[in-house]
Write a structure and sequence with these properties.
Helices cover about 55% and strands about 10% of the residues. Helix 1 runs antiparallel to helix 13. The chain is elongated and about 95 Å long.
């Protein structure tokens, strides 16, 4: 009688253990999804640089006096008859200037213009690799569902950081005594890699978790109709300053940029957006370096080349706007130029390795426990039948 009770209890424990393991296996898609998001996010940080390496038309020597914006626009529009340049982007002395154009058939293309010679080195129709990889990482090409799925990963990511700090005692030793036993069994080696990578990535995981959680809360409140406020009315050109003409007025891009640079002489020019409608301003974006995380924006009357307002920095923005801008910059590493991008890429790769190694450790441990649980259940059933 007692033997039968013991067999029944053993079988019950095995079934409970098996259900727990099923629960563990079902968590695998979450961590696989997190690994995918980490990898795509790491690639997105340097997506422009990757395209630069692959596409020779984006490259420029940077030697010589750069041409003014008007000459770049004229060269781009000459290469695509009927096209109209809507924006110019400067990526640095090593990159050609990107002129985004609207074509007569309703499509868009980017002309890569040598900033010194004015030669159009190539055309890139449609969305760029940078736009694609950022959309894939940020919202899985399906907004807003994908946005919620991606940003919700901030919860398990932050939870893993906190629990990891609790589980691994004296984790700080990995800063000055990192130990990776390469010649040991794979389980030992991956365990060491996981601990070392986790320790060195603490600050980066915290940054990504906090910024992702901000994006999740912000968009959720927005869709609930609550919002955090802080929005500003768009800057528009006064109606009495808009010229009356039967044809679209020609914008003097050189005068617009010159006015913006006069307002902010220390600004490094990054982007020029020409007006879409008669009431829109011409917007010049750049960075003066005073606050690296915050861009400078100069709104200019496109008809008179007079500065309407200077935005950016710590002045003229609400707390919500400043927070949103800072959170985006911290999440993407899109501040401080190439050195910051390389740091974000390195730690993004390290975080991807951390998730991957954790998956391997967890999978091997769970697989071994699953085999043992199945064997225990079979033994209990065999003993019961006997």
């Amino acid at each position: 009688m007692f033997r039968a009770e013991r067999i029944e209890m053993s079988g019950g424990k095995s079934r409970t253990r098996l259900w727990f393991l099923w629960h563990s296996w079902l968590a695998m898609p979450i961590w696989a999804f997190l690994f995918f998001i980490c990898v795509t996010g790491t690639i997105a940080v340097v997506s422009t640089e990757i395209t630069w390496l692959v596409d020779p038309s984006m490259r420029a020597s940077g030697e010589g006096q750069p041409l003014p914006p008007g000459a770049l626009i004229a060269a781009a529009e000459a290469a695509a008859p009927g096209g109209r340049v809507e924006s110019l982007s400067w990526g640095g002395s090593h990159m050609a200037v990107g002129a985004e154009m609207a074509l007569p058939d309703g499509t868009f293309t980017t002309a890569w213009v040598n900033p010194v010679t004015g030669v159009v080195q190539g055309l890139s129709p449609g969305n760029s690799f940078r736009q694609f990889i950022r959309a894939l990482h940020g919202w899985l090409m399906t907004y807003p569902t994908g946005w919620y799925l991606v940003t919700a990963l901030a919860v398990p990511l932050a939870g893993s950081l906190v629990t990891g700090l609790v589980v691994y005692k004296r984790f700080w030793k990995s800063f000055y005594q990192p130990r990776i036993r390469w010649k040991q069994a794979p389980r030992v080696m991956w365990g060491d890699l996981h601990r070392v990578a986790g320790t060195w990535s603490i600050w980066f995981i915290a940054v990504i978790s906090i910024t992702s959680l901000w994006f999740l809360i912000y968009i959720a409140l927005f869709h609930l109709g609550i919002g955090l406020g802080g929005g500003k009315a768009p800057v528009m050109v006064a109606r009495d300053q808009i010229p009356v003409s039967a044809v679209r007025p020609k914008i003097d891009a050189d005068a617009v940029v010159a006015a913006a640079m006069t307002a902010l002489p220390e600004m490094r020019l990054r982007y020029l957006h020409l007006p879409d409608t008669a009431y829109d301003t011409a917007s010049v974006f750049g960075s003066s370096g005073q606050v690296p995380l915050l861009p400078d924006i100069v709104r200019v009357n496109p008809y008179t080349a007079e500065v309407i307002v200077v935005e950016g920095g710590l002045e003229g923005s609400s707390g919500v706007e400043l927070t949103r801008t800072i959170m985006r910059a911290l999440h993407t590493g899109d501040f401080g130029g190439l050195p910051v991008k390389l740091i974000w890429f390195a730690f993004g790769s390290l975080m991807s390795l951390l998730v991957f190694s954790g998956m391997l450790i967890w999978t091997k441990r769970t697989a071994r426990a699953t085999v043992e649980a199945v064997r225990g259940l079979r033994t209990a059933r065999a003993s019961s039948n006997a």
